């Protein structure tokens, strides 16, 4: 069902999303090629988190269309969800279960095989192997974020969605996260992330998209070179607020 | 098919594991139902005649009210930790999430009944340890879980969910409650299976209809 020939990880056309009277996305068009790290920028309320939730299929759009790897998300929910791994604001973990129990449970939800090996390798990858038998409730927010990342990576998704992944992480963990993202990209996978640490994000991103008023205000394919322009666009939106 | 059953069982088993650790739901359901029973034993002059008359109604009304508390709590736990969204991220159909959650609720209420029904037998001095009672309890608990899981999901994001759930749940389960009360009444009066057959059939029809309809509706109410 997943198109092997398409080069687009995400294709959004005329996407509209309103929450009651409030328009959050106003006819957004966006194409993100596979194998890229895309950073979504914008002030609070610009629509970054809403767009990520839509891509994660937690929020439905009012009109428009979105496809991932050529698969229409409106028609093929379970197929698209298998293609994506998401780490959103909340770690979304069962606090009274251990790290291992959480990962085992979600491995069952994704119908994964060789689960023990998978959990071992993923927990090592995100650096939580020492705490694998601790209850999530006893972990710091940063560690819980890492467990959430392990859950998102376990099924080897084509597209990783990260909503402010660095929040709650110390500098060492942020470096580790950068390595995971870099490694993911080297395997030809795509990452779409939001952040408020703009300068750091521009160093690791292949593409920067500044959302403005529910549409794409700026779409740079060379964030490092366009840093001044991106920062200007981002800060002008911040000043508008 | 086996894959779907494994998903449903995994969700139900997860809820059971959390309940064993926290005892949030079973204690609330059993405690509430026991309180109702005790209050009625003080409020009513219980002799053998009126125990048979009012006992079944008190038992099932108590379990129905207590079930509301349990359903509320079981879903609130998923929302507080945003774990319901984690389930929604998984590549499984929403009706499996519903059936898994309903299985968990079924197990909680069933465990609570294992505590409540013997206490009811002692307080009302009625013989209830019969196969008929097992059938009535299973069918009623199944229907309560099917309806309660759906309405708990509907009301969980509402500010006044503690009020909303009983307002939705209790009117809908009234036919099932009638079936449970009438068939229990037949049983404590020593009647045969055939006397209670029409009430048990009503309970079966209710359960089948609400499991199917609720599983269908559930997938729509999860979306924003």
Give the gist of this structure.
Chain A is α/β, with parallel strands linked by helices and 241 residues long. Chain A has 8 helices and 10 strands. The N and C termini of chain A lie far apart (43 Å).
Structure characterization notes:
The complex is a heterodimer of chains A (241) and B (224). Chain A has 241 residues and is α/β, with parallel strands linked by helices. Chain A has a single domain, classed as Rossmann fold (3-Layer(aba) Sandwich), CATH 3.40.50. Chain A is built from eight helices and ten strands. In chain A, the strands form two sheets. In chain A, strands 6-7-8-3-9-10 form a six-stranded mixed sheet, sandwiched between helices. A four-stranded antiparallel sheet of chain A has the order 2-1-4-5, with helices on one face. In chain A, strand 9 and strand 10 form a beta hairpin. The radius of gyration of chain A is 18 Å and the shape is globular. The termini of chain A are far apart. Mean pLDDT of chain A is 89; it is low at 1-5. The mean pLDDT of chain B is 90. Chain B has helices at residues 2-22, 25-43, 48-80, 83-89, 94-124, 131-155, 161-172, 174-188, 193-221. Chain B has 224 residues and is mainly alpha-helical. Chain B is globular and about 55 Å long. In chain B, helix 2 (25-43) packs antiparallel against helix 3 (48-80) and helix 3 (48-80) crosses helix 7 (161-172). Chain B has one domain. The chains are: A alpha/beta (241), B mainly alpha (224). The A-B interface holds A 53, 56-60, 77-79, 81-82, 84, 86, 88, 90-97, 101, 105-106, 108-111, 151 and B 3, 6-7, 10, 14, 17-18, 21-22, 81-83, 85-93, 223-224.
Element string of chain A (H = helix, E = strand): EEEHEEHEHHHEHEHEEH
Biggest interface pair, counts: A-B, 30 and 23 residues
Beta-strand content bin of chain B: under 5%
The CATH superfamily of chain A bears the name P-loop containing nucleotide triphosphate hydrolases
Mean pLDDT of chain A: 89
- In total, how many beta strands of chain B? 0
Which consecutive residue ranges of chain B, at least 5 long each, have pLDDT under 50?
Answer: none
Biggest sheet character of chain B:
none
Query: How many separate helices of chain B?
Result: 9
| Model regions low in confidence, pLDDT < 50 over at least 5 residues of chain A | 1-5
Q: What would you say the CATH architecture of chain A is?
A: 3-Layer(aba) Sandwich
N→C terminal distance of chain A? 43 Å
- Kindly report the oligomeric state of this protein: heterodimer
How do the strands line up in the largest sheet of chain A? 6-7-8-3-9-10
What number of structural domains do the residues of chain B give? 1
Q: Which structural class do the helices and strands of chain A define?
A: alpha/beta
Q: What's the CATH topology label of chain A?
A: Rossmann fold
Q: Could you say how many structural domains of chain A there are in total?
A: 1
Count of DSSP helices of chain A?
A: 8
